[in-house]
Design brief:
This protein is 59% helix and 5% strand. The protein is mostly helical. The longest helix has 26 residues. The chain is globular, with a radius of gyration of 16 Å.
């Protein structure tokens, strides 16, 4: 039996990029230690004053990975407190999301492309998607935006990371 298309185009992508994000966060923590930088300076770093800091970028990337995967699989989205304040806590969040998405049964994604997904992302206006549109035009673009922004924040602040770090394995 082949893996359902929607599983194959979502879960492995989230796993690859969250794994890479975890390794980039590890490099950031090592950088802060080696350069005697208060970790909070990196965790609260922003590219521009009206943008969210690194902490929130990582939390939101995790939220998209778990939320998109759960909705496509037709299961409850696990709640997370958004109370991380350290690299260790962010790493634990990434690990928890990796464990969650990795534990989803691929068979649950069988009808995901046509499943109706309804979101209300922080606004009073709900959005309705087919599962395929939700993944391809909403979930993945938002996920990549936040992963990329986290990477850019760290690179901008001197953490020695490159394209191979961003892409992971």
């Amino acid at each position: 039996m082949t893996t359902p298309y929607m599983h194959a185009t979502s879960v492995p992508v989230f796993q690859q990029m969250l794994g890479a994000l975890s390794r980039v966060l590890g490099k950031a923590q090592a950088h802060a230690s080696a350069k005697n930088i208060d970790p909070a300076a990196l965790l609260q770093a922003r590219l521009y004053p009206d943008m969210l800091p690194l902490l929130r970028q990582v939390q939101i990337a995790c939220d998209f990975a778990k939320g998109v995967s759960a909705r496509l699989a037709g299961v409850e989205v696990p709640a997370m407190a958004d109370d991380e304040q350290s690299f260790e806590q962010l790493q634990a969040r990434v690990a928890a999301v990796l464990a969650f998405v990795g534990g989803l049964d691929a068979a649950a994604f069988e009808q995901a492309a046509t499943r109706e997904i309804v979101t209300q992302a922080g606004t009073p206006k709900e959005k309705r998607f087919t599962g395929q549109d939700y993944l391809l035009t909403y979930g993945l673009p938002h996920f990549f935006f936040h992963v990329t922004t986290a990477y850019a924040l760290l690179r901008h602040n001197g953490v020695e990371v490159g394209k191979k770090d961003y892409l992971g394995t």
